[in-house]
């Protein structure tokens, strides 16, 4: 698996430290609120598992699964809902937990869909932001790291459903997806 990684972009210790900082910030910002973390599967699993334990509040969690990339490195532009949330959102302060904000198609679609269900508030926490690729404007409240325009894998992020278990964020060798 390591042979397919061109370079490490964000190492394990750096990830851990930044997640801890985000958790502290969210803990401060959501005092007295009814926080519901919405994990967008599958990419956000590692981040969600670590972030929720870094937040010192009696929060709730729920999951939705969407997909727009299929087996490639470019968005299809069509966001498919594979699994919807279970919880009625009224009265909750939602924080959408994502692994990466790239074209913005996925998060703008999810934001609109969840806002229509009239929760108390909806904000975004994304581990990675790749602003050079943006097609639709999306404003995340929390960003872990800004990354360059390269296809990244690991810590939940996949290429063709693989590499999610890499414990750090790496750049995939272009020959893996061009072969
Ligand atoms: O800003 P965008 O260009 O829309 O890209 C971001 C989305 O792409 C990835 O999901 P993917 O569709 O690959 O599904 P996955 O989470 O199951 O990997 C990622 O997890 C985000 O949800
Ligand atoms: O760079 C990326 N890597 C993995 N999944 C993604 N989904 C959007 N951008 C990416």
From TrEMBL:
Entry-linked InterPro entries: HGPRT, Hxn_phspho_trans, PRTase-like, PRTase_dom
Domain of life of the source: Bacteria
Cofactor(s) this protein cannot do without: Mg(2+)
Subcellular location: Cytoplasm
Pfam families reported for this sequence: Pribosyltran
Enzyme class: transferase
Alphabetical UniProt keywords: Cytoplasm, Glycosyltransferase, Magnesium, Metal-binding, Nucleotide-binding, Purine salvage, Transferase
UniProt protein name: Hypoxanthine phosphoribosyltransferase
Primary residence: cytoplasm
EC number: 2.4.2.8
Known function: Purine salvage pathway enzyme that catalyzes the transfer of the ribosyl-5-phosphate group from 5-phospho-alpha-D-ribose 1-diphosphate (PRPP) to the N9 position of the 6-oxopurines hypoxanthine and guanine to form the corresponding ribonucleotides IMP (inosine 5'-monophosphate) and GMP (guanosine 5'-monophosphate), with the release of PPi.
The protein's annotated pathway: Purine metabolism; GMP biosynthesis via salvage pathway; GMP from guanine: step 1/1; Purine metabolism; IMP biosynthesis via salvage pathway; IMP from hypoxanthine: step 1/1
GO MF term set: glycosyltransferase activity
Family: Belongs to the purine/pyrimidine phosphoribosyltransferase family.
């Amino acid at each position: 698996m390591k042979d397919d990684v061109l370079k490490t972009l964000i190492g394990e210790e750096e990830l851990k430290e930044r997640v801890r900082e985000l958790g502290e910030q969210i803990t401060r910002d959501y005092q007295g609120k009814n926080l519901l973390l919405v994990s967008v599967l599958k990419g956000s699993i590692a981040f969600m598992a670590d972030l929720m334990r870094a937040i010192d509040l009696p929060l709730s969690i729920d999951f939705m699964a969407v997909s727009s990339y299929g087996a490639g490195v470019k968005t299809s532009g069509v966001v498919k809902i594979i699994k919807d949330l279970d919880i009625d959102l009224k009265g909750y302060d939602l924080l959408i937990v994502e692994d990466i904000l790239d074209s913005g198609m996925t998060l703008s679609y999810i934001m609109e869909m969840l806002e229509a269900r009239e929760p108390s508030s909806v904000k975004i926490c994304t581990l990675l932001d790749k602003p050079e690729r943006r097609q639709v404007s999306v404003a995340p409240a929390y960003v872990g790291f800004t990354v360059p325009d390269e296809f990244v894998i690991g810590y939940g992020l996949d290429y063709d459903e693989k590499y999610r278990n890499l414990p750090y964020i790496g750049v995939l060798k272009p020959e893996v997806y061009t072969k």
